[in-house]
Amino acid sequence: MEIPQSQFELLFEKVRELSARVHHLETLLRVQPSPPVLQPSTEATKPEAPRMPVSPTEPTRPVPPLPAFVVPSKTTEHTDLERRIGAHWLNRIAIAALLIAASYFLKLAFDSGWIGPAGRVAIGLVAGIGLVLWSERFRTRGYRVFSHSLKAVGIGVLYLSLWAAFQVYQLIPSGAAFFCMLVVTASTCALAFTQDAEILAAFAITGGFSTPVLLSTGVNREVALFSYLTLLDLGALALVFFKPWRRLLWLGFAGTLILYVSWDSEFYNRTELATTLVFATIFFGIFAVAPLFMLRQEHHQGLMPLMFAVVNALTYFAQAYVMITEVSKTAMAWFSLALAGVYVALNRVRAKSADEGAEEKLRLMHVALALGLITVAIPIRLDAHWITMGWFVESAVLLWVGNRIKSDLLNVFALTAVVLGVGRLLIYDNFESTQLIFNMRMLVYTVAVAVLGLIAYHATQREDDQIQNIGRIAAVALNILALRALTLEVEDYYSREMSAGTGNRVLINWTDIRIARDFTYSALWMGYGALLMAVGFWRKSAFIRWQALILLALTTTKVFVYDTQELERIYRILSFVVLGILLLAVSFAYQRDWLKLSTRKNAPDGEPAQP
């Protein structure tokens, strides 16, 4: 591989510095000197420092540690920074300055009438080609950076000259200008490939995406524009296939997106839906396989392929959503499901010579995108509480599949869907039922309770503490939702009683209905607490029993604080009677020690508790 002149000079300077240090150490430690360092004939040979002879009778002494003055200084770091500034940064500033100077000079010449239109374009073309050819002279001598800079100036001059020939002076038709710019782009790509120069490839891609802007006439030419962008993106993908130039894909993606959005904001209407969606799908397909190409050069756990996959998916989905939802939400929901299927298929594609860790991350990202699209399709297609129902059903399916194939990722998505469903159920959903118990609200709550119960059950089959904690949270949420559903049914019942009395214009005692409702609340909560306590004794689960004790404590507080003041005498008596009997029963169960709690407490350390 050819070493640039600047790097060769830096390497030679470091070798000289190290040789001088070794020579100095040998002199101090009286070590037999090494052969002299050969230096190029162009450099003056410095006289060697006198060395003291080593006595043959002197025993060999161990080499002491290096003196403190041998610690490398920061001179090399400063030299590297200085070289970078001088060789790279100043070079780029010089390019910009020359382009600006050339543009000002040409403008002055044009405004003064010194050169005609054809001559102006000819000067630009000759200057551009000349700069590209001249840059090769510097490249062959090892000045690659300077050579690439000259090529960038020359390529820019060629594009500007062709643009002026078409847009400013109308010397050539648009087809001829487009063909010439295409030749410039292809030639730059060929130079980049043969010279292994990523920067030239970036110049070519940038010029290629600039061509439609430079040649724009304000006329809608969708098929021609998007066909050209397709060829350009395929070219960038081909370069990445042969070269480790992954950044070109980001450049191609950004250029395609900018031109697509610019065209869409000016020309798109519903009649062009089919054509536009087809090209958007083509762009998506090109960039969907791009992460697999990135993996061929991914030798570490990088995030670039993952980020590219996510950005491409979100962009395509947003484009399709804007177009399709104007026609049909149902079609958009099916589109989202179809796109999820595409990512499931991509999950089975393997990249050759890819890092296993990076490939596994990309596969998981494809699964995540597929599940995310399925989750999004539910609220697009369904309405109201059916969205909540869909998320619960999705979570149940994911949980079942995740446990069958031992996939923690699917379990995470199942929990996410459950959280979405529970959040929507408690905060957003507003049910209007016409009958008690057998209504849509109870159906949704029943499905939610069943899914939470499934999560709690599967958690008990795992030994992971974190999974078991999730199962406990699911069990608590299960009981809260079940109790809330029953409480809402009680509330609806008494609300109908009030509405029926108002509709029949019958004089009713509103206070009696409210008192009966509050008593029913207490009775319901005490009954649910008793049921929980029974299940806790049956399953020998302290976790369930503690939930029952907390619920009974809350109910007891309500009876003593609220019911004694608000309820009438008969309801007050009934509340205390039911509560007293229930608490006595629970207390009796604990006193009889049906669970052998005292035996477990007194068991010696290391011995199992008595059954």
Descriptors for this entry?
611 residues; mainly alpha; 20 helices; 76% helix; elongated; disordered C terminus
Radius of gyration: 40 Å
| Beta content | under 5%
Indicate the mean pLDDT.
Answer: 79
End-to-end Cα distance: 78 Å
**Helical residue percent band:** over 70%
Give the number of helices: 20
Give a written overview of the molecule.
- The structure is a single chain.
- This protein is an all-alpha fold and 611 residues long.
- Among the domains are: 1-42, no CATH class; 94-217; 449-593.
- It has 20 helices and no strands.
- α6 (198-214) runs parallel beside α8 and α7 (222-242) packs parallel to α9 (273-295).
- The chain is elongated.
- Mean pLDDT is 79; it is low at 37-74, 503-507 and 602-611.
Short summary:
The chain has 611 residues and is mainly alpha-helical. It has helices at 5-29, 75-111, 117-140, 144-168, 174-195, 198-214, 222-242, 247-267, 273-295, 304-324, 329-346, 356-381, 385-404, 408-428, 440-460, 465-503, 510-539, 542-566, 569-591, 597-602.
Describe how the helices and strands are arranged.
Elements: H1 5-29, H2 75-111, H3 117-140, H4 144-168, H5 174-195, H6 198-214, H7 222-242, H8 247-267, H9 273-295, H10 304-324, H11 329-346, H12 356-381, H13 385-404, H14 408-428, H15 440-460, H16 465-503, H17 510-539, H18 542-566, H19 569-591, H20 597-602
